Every structure is written in C-alpha cells, then in structure tokens.
Amino acid sequence: MKKWYFSRRQLGIPYGLFLVCFVAAPLIVIIYYAFTNGQGRFSMENLSDFFTSPNTIGTLAYSFGVAVVTTCVALLLAYPIAYILARSKMKHKTAVLLIFIMPMWINFTLRITALKEILTMLEGNLSYYPFLNTVIGMTYDFLPFMILPIYTTLLKLDNSLLEAACDLGADTLHTFVKVTLPLSVPGIISGVVMVFLPSMTNYVVLDMLYNSTYIMGSLIGAYFSAYDWHNGSMIALILLLIILIFTLFTNRYADEEENSREVHLNGEKNM
Amino acid sequence: MEKSQNIIELKNISRTFDDGFRVVEDFNLTIQRGEFVTFLGPSGCGKTTTLRMIAGFDSPSGGELLLNGEDIKELPPNKRPINTVFQKYALFPHLNVFDNIAFGLKIKKLPKAEIVRKVKKVLEMVDLEGFEERKIHTLSGGQQQRIAIARALVNEPEILLLDEPLGALDLKMRKEMQLELKQMHKRLGITFIYVTHDQEEALTMSDKIVVMSEGKIQQVGTPEDIYNEPKNAFVADFIGDSNIFSGIMTGKLRVRFCGAEFECVDDVEHGTMIDAVVRPEDIIITTPEKGNITGKVTSVVFKGVHYEITVLSGKNELVIQSTRKAQVGATVGLNIEPEGIHIMIAENIENRIETGVTKDYRLHFLNGVLACDIVKLIPGAAMNADGVIVDAGGDEIDIEKIRVVVSVKPDDIEMSDDKNAGILNGHIINLIYKGDHYSYVVRTDEDEDFIVHDEDLWNMDDYVSLVIPPDKFHFSLKR
Hints:
The structure holds two protein chains of two kinds. Chain A is mainly alpha-helical. In chain A, 80% of the residues lie in helices and 0% in strands. Chain A has one domain (66-262): MetI-like (MetI-like fold), CATH 1.10.3720. Chain A is built from twelve helices and no strands. Mean pLDDT of chain A is 85; it is low at 260-271. Chain B is α+β, with helices and mostly antiparallel strands. Chain B folds into three domains: 6-228, Rossmann fold (3-Layer(aba) Sandwich); 241-345, CATH 2.40.50.140; 351-477, CATH 2.40.50.140. Chain B contains nine helices and 32 strands.
C-alpha cells in the first residue's frame, strides 16, 4: 500500500488561513478605516488630525517619555544582573535566573495588583506620583524581557576574547568597556526593542495604577470605545509605522553583529 | 645592561584541577633568551595548561615560575611582558584590523602617530599592508592568523606564546606559515614558545622540543636528538613513524627481537629488557635468503617520495619506507644496520598485546576471549537500548576497526605447574636473576612472549601455567 503524505503546500494551508484571517484582513480593515471618513469616502483628514491635534501629539510625547525612562531603568537594572548571572562562577546560577524569570509565570494583572498594594502602602495615595508609579510598574513587568537577551549574549561571549584583551594589557575595566560591552550590544538591542515598544502602548498598567494620563494605547482604546474607528485606526497605523522603522533600523545593526560573530563560529568549527 | 641568558624558568611547576586531576606534574624547564621552544604532545597532555600558566591565565598549584629571575606567579597577565597568539585567533569581531592591532598600544596610551606607524610596520611584516580598515569577518583564516600574530608582536613582548596557531589552516597554508614564523623568529630574536600536537611542525620549527605526556616531560632536546635518540617508547612512537619491539640484550652489542638476533651500537648490559626502535627508513628489504628475518608483504602504499610497505614477520608487523616497490603477498628478507637500531632500556616493563573486539563486545585474547568494558574505553561512547555501542552522535561504532591494547605487569602474573590453573600455558625460554627476583620470559603455546617476575626459581624449559587475576588487566584504546 502506498503511504499517504502531506505535501509541503498542503501543510501550509492552516498557516495561510491564519495569516489571512488574523494578520492580513485586520490590517486591511485598519488601513481602510484610517483613510476614510464617517461617510466611507477616501480622506486624509485622520492623518492631518493626528499631527494637528495637541491631544495626540501630547500623548505621543508622554508615551515616549514613559517608554524611554522605563527602558533606561530596565537596562540599568538588567545589565548587571545578566552580567553576574552569565559571567560569574556562581553555583546556583539557574536558580537565581529563575527568581527573575518567575514573575513571568504569574498572571499579569495579579502581579500589578500586588505591586499596587505595595506602592499604596509606601506612598499613601497612588495619585501623588503617577509617572513614577507607571515607570515602576512597566519596569517590573518588562524586566525579564531585558534580562534574557542580554544574558544569552553574554553567555555566548567567547572567553578567549576577554583573555586576549587581558593579554594585551587591558585591566578589568578596560576589558569591560572595550570588549564585553560592545559585544553585548546585540543583546541590549533586542532587550530594548522588547521593552520599549510594549511600554509605549500597554495602558493596562496605567489604568491599574490609577494614572489617568493617556498613552498611545489608551488613546486608541478611547477612540474605539467612542466608535470613532477612523481616528483610532490612523493612530494604530502610525504606531505600526514607528515600530516598523525602529525594527528595520535595529535589524540592520543586528545583522552586522551577526556577520562578525559568524567569524567566530567558523573558527571554532575548524578546530 | 647584562641580562641573564635564562629568560624563563619553570621549577617543579604543578597544576591540579579542582576535581583533583593533575594536569601538569613536576615540570622543570629553563628557556633561554631568543630560543624557539615547542611543547609537543597529544591532546590532554598538559601543554596548553603550561602555556597558560606562563601567560598568566592559569596559576600553578605549586612550584616557581621565574621571568628574568623574578617570580611572576602573582603577576596578572596584563602586567607580564608576554603576548599570546590564541588557538582560535581571538580577534575582536567588533573592531577592524587597525583597532585590533592597536588595542594594546592604545591601552599603553602611546601617541596616535606612533600607533599608526607601529601598526603599519607590523602589517608590513605579516604581508598585509593596506588592510587597516578591513573588518575581521572579511578575512580568510590565514589572514586572520597573520593579524593575530601582528596584534601580539606589535607590543614588542619579551616572549611570544603561540597556542596551536596553525591548527585551523589547510596543509599548504600551514607549511607556508611555519616557514614564515621561523623567519620571523630569526629576524626578531625574541623568545617563541609554541604549542602543537603536530610532530612534523615541531621538528621543522624548533630549536628545542619538550615532549609531554600525561602532564610530565618525557624528553627535552633538539629536534635531531628527539628523533634519533628517543628516550622512551612514548617519544619514539610519537615522533615520526617508528617500529618498536620489546626485546632482550643477549650479549655485548647484541640484541634479540622479532625472533632474530641483531648487532647494535648501544652498549646495554646483557640480559636487560629493552625496547628497540627502528625507523621505517632504516629497514632494508632483500631476498629471503639474505635477510636476518623473513616476512610476508601485507600492504604497499604509494606515498609520493616512497612506498610504505607493511611486512608481517611472525607476530610482528614492520612498517618500512622504501623507494623500491614490493609485491603484496611476496616473502621478503629484512635486514637492519646496527646504526638503525636504537635501544631503550624498558622502564616499566609491561606485557602488551594488541587485539580486536568480538561481536559480543569482548576482546580476542590469544586462544580465548576476555571480558572488558568497551564503552568506557571509547570517549563519548554509550550503549543504547538495543545493546549496541554508539558514539556521541548516536551512530553505531564499527567494532572491527577498534584495536585495544591489553597490558599486564610482570609482577601481576603468577606461575603454576598445574596446567589448568591459569589462562595461558607456555615454556620458560629465558630467566635472569634481578637481585631480589627472577625475571622470566615465557613463550606461550600461541607463540607470544610474556615477561613474568617471580621470587621462586624455576628452570629453563619448564612448562608453566600463567595465572592472571582479571582485575590486573589494563585496557587502553590504540591511538
């Protein structure tokens, strides 16, 4: 009896359907709404609204501020942790790494609720420091996404490079600044991407921590709940473009790094 | 200023890993200014560890490490006037050629103009002028190698350490680089310490070779010394192709091995157990009547300059290099000139038998089989659920290709006159009194000679049974 195989094309059907239903179709709908007005006619009004309304520009600036501060704080916290975890000869490294990763396994709202209680205890009233609380919440939420990629890059760092630096006369500080740090840039970039973009839009954190200021996510949410699909879609589209440009830029950098790392891998294979 | 001739001295250096494994033991070596010294040995012999201790990446567990007469054990690598060319080059992938080479100079805070001048000069030296702006990953293996050498040399070290630097290059490139490194060494006059497992490389390049095995120095000498006068069986086997036979001195300048007597030039006391080393090019093929020993040609391989001919004479296999071809299957006579035989006094005499593996993973042993844990012998091997021995990748290992050396110490064999007591029977064909015991040679029914130490006196031609407790066998994989 002849065995019956799925061809590659047949196996691709479910994914194709998924792509059409959940990626292509929504995108087309968003683009459609972004460039039409209430009467269903083509219009650039939504676009000009975005750049003229002080409301949206202000929100964009605020989101940017939250994202930049969150990313910086997360980076400053994550790098030393990742460095210690990856480079030290500590015995129970995995256990320690787990402590930082474990919050990811707990429900997000639960975590933020817990944080809210702690912050209320410390500050008395959460509305005193809305920006600070938002940054704390976001950092707490996204820290593992910063630690993991940096940890992985540092783990892969070839020890002989550090030895070479030392051999050429560099002390510990020099070696870190001139070798370790530049070579961990790819990890830093993926960490930054993974933290920066979500912290521009994740308005649930703000809601739960009683920060009434809008960020990009909340703005879209507000338009949609007022049945204004057109302006909401335009903002979503512009956010998408920002993300796209950002990703293209970082990808190019990551590619360059990848090339130079390949040299190393080849060297090892030839051993 | 008068500087001492000895640039670096290692005194009783030892290194024990945390798990108790002794990588380097009782290492004593003096290296003179301007010498090209090579540490040679199989992987895992401690040569790289020794180099790393000189560089400062590893610290000795004991002993003294003197640089120009001062102990540098506590000096970190960045403070030592020593630079290293790493095994995998270890070039910084995020820097271009110029910045890689200038790395050390920039740390020393040299003026910019001087850095540029020095980098240019060293690039000329390694024949890579104009490569300053190139990215490391655009360079070939050979070019990366040169940059790694340039990066070390630009700092004008007193000693240059090279850790198997040519390992990743192809044969032609390797030969070229060997000569270039040798010339560079002559021109610069600095001390080179080179680590390799390639004996040919060591012989070509070095002023002095340090042969290492299992963390210990086996022999130190010039390439000629090491090749022509190997101190023990390990060195003879590792350096060049060689035939090693165990034998016995039968008179003044007379030695017996391979079932025949030969004249030799090494004066060793009558009755001493020896290992005779014969280089393949020193065996002369002649007609069966004229030969001291005869044998059958089992293989002939053309090697370019010469033929490599294998001859089986009794139980002994001889490898011969000759410019003249021989016929496979032909019976030939073999002669060895007295100068071609190098006699080494056997230090730790062992009975060694090379053997193959049976289908059910036991060892052929003369007329029988011997139990042996094959899995433990082969690195990375494991037994899968079907009872088949597989390698690290999960593929079945071809047991027919595996050769195992079974060795037994003469002290571990007992003799009995009950024919059924032991696993082997044979006649005593030689006996020597060694002060507190007798050393016997027992030729078994299978025509294999065993050396046995016994305190009791037996007679020549006694028929004895050899009793060997199973735990006294030692197994190792043939290289």
